[in-house]
Design the sequence.
């Protein structure tokens, strides 16, 4: 193999395309939003129990957002940026 062919056989570009990175950022944002919504709900006084920790936002919505964010991340990794539209 000549040196010219050897140099051309290596791809020095990024592994993912711009579309992949955009979806990755969206996925990270959704995951971060899920963790932010999951936070809080505790009582100010440690001797008192607050039922706010069991509300819909912390038990259903926030974990669903985290899982959706992980799904978006998987889609971003598997997305083929070189696929042409017909």
Sequence:
């Amino acid at each position: 193999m000549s040196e010219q062919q050897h140099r051309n056989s290596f791809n020095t570009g990024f592994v993912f395309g711009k579309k992949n990175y955009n979806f990755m950022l969206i996925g990270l944002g959704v995951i971060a939003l899920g963790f932010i919504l999951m936070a809080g709900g505790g009582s100010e006084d440690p001797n008192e129990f607050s039922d706010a920790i069991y509300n819909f936002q912390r038990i259903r919505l926030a974990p669903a957002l985290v899982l959706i964010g992980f799904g978006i991340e998987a889609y971003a990794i598997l997305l083929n940026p070189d696929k042409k539209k017909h």
